[in-house]
């Protein structure tokens, strides 16, 4: 527990809030910025003396329930809440709740990306939805069954994911896949049985995965530069941008190339070829 940092954080958060932010009338005699200590204490359901001692670096270590109550009273964001738990010497609650239905806000963004390859994946690397451009660039990975649904499985066991990328990048991308999976498992917590079973099966089936997993590298999905080997157009180097939902349960991946570059021209051509493919598939026979 970092008493000094905890006290400073509580005071600064309290001073940033306004009475109207928490449904309290400002009154006519308010002379200090933000909320009063007694107001925060009331919102958190604790005594004024207890809260005051925390701000004065004199209080005992607050319980997880008390920290959560203070975070709600101070209207903390998820990041601020987790930081508050850390300062109080407690483990932050698990953020991630398993969600296999695409977040509506993410889906709205995807619907506006007709000319950009884009996919939505869950925390375990399962593709939930993809647009036609992404299917043309990477091949479809929606609707797969069993462990084949997961990117790590396709990379380390079946090899179908690995075959989509330039061979010289396999070492780097393999580590990214493992580090992302470890971050997802950590966020999901021990109650995510599907994640636990996936990791155990990967360790059993792939010595390469087991070796990388033992490195304990942890990183959320990040922006990266990748060279994809597309069957019709050959090598296409793209920038992969990642947009997460707040709880990191889902991510939107976009694949772009610098305007005017040869790679951008290939993506434009891919849009035409992909549309022809989908039109042909939809045509009556």
UniProtKB/TrEMBL annotation:
Residues 34-81 form the HTH cro/C1-type domain. InterPro entries: Cro/C1-type_HTH, Lambda_DNA-bd_dom_sf, MLTR_LBD. SMART domains: HTH_XRE. PROSITE patterns: HTH_CROC1 (PS50943). Pfam families: HTH_31, MLTR_LBD. It comes from the Bacteria. This is Helix-turn-helix transcriptional regulator. It comes from Curtobacterium herbarum.
